[in-house]
Every structure is written in C-alpha cells, then in structure tokens.
Specification:
This protein has 119 residues and is an all-alpha fold. It is flat and about 80 Å long. It has 2 domains: 45 residues, no CATH class; 41 residues. It contains 2 helices and no strands. Bound molecules: zinc ion (2 copies). The site of one zinc ion has 8 residues, from loops.
Length: 119
Amino acid sequence: MLTKKEILEMKSDKPYITKRKIVIERLYNKDFGDDKVCGCGHSYYRHFDTYEGMSPIGCKYCDCITWHPIPNEEDKERERLTIEWNKKYEEEKQNGERIQIELEKNKNENTHTGGTEAS
Ligand SMILES: [Zn+2]
Ligand SMILES: [Zn+2]
C-alpha cells in the first residue's frame, strides 16, 4: 500500500518517480526449534550456515532447498488416494476408448454386410 505522501510524490513532476521494492528473505528463526526435523530428515539448524550469519543455504546434508515439514499421515493418505483416483480414471478412460473402438468396428462390420436399416 502506498501512503498519501508517496502518491503525491508520484504525481508531482519530478524527473523520476520512485518505486518501492519489497524483498522477502527467509531468515533463521531462533524460536522455531533447532532440532525440529525437516521432511528431508535433517534438523532445522542444518539448513543454515552458522559461519555465514545463519544465511538460509538449504540443507547441508542433502539437496533440500528449504526447511519443510514432514508430510503427516493425512497428507500421505490424500496423496495415495489421488494416485489411486488418477489410475482409476486412466483405466476408465482406456476402457471407454476400447468400447468406442469396438462400436466403430461393429458399425463398420454392419455396413460391410449391408447392415439393417433400422436404427
Ligand atoms: Zn530439509
Ligand atoms: Zn537434508
């Protein structure tokens, strides 16, 4: 949000208008708990460089980029169900296509043998 003063400044006929930039950085939170285990299996504090003013360098022991919680059972279950649903959907889609092909085949066979006029 711009303040009234900033809006006025932007409207004035200065040679330049100013732009405000917001920088968001992830910094070490001393209250979070150094030993809290990340989804990658390593402690929270391992994701910061103690020699570089606790800069968020990512996990020192693997290629985890940033601390993230371990997925809980509920999340795992949801993921499992999603995979299952997708599989079922794919199967149904393939079945549907197969039926479609069968129908096409039958139609062609009917036309080859003269077929029936009734529909
Ligand atoms: Zn991690
Ligand atoms: Zn790790």
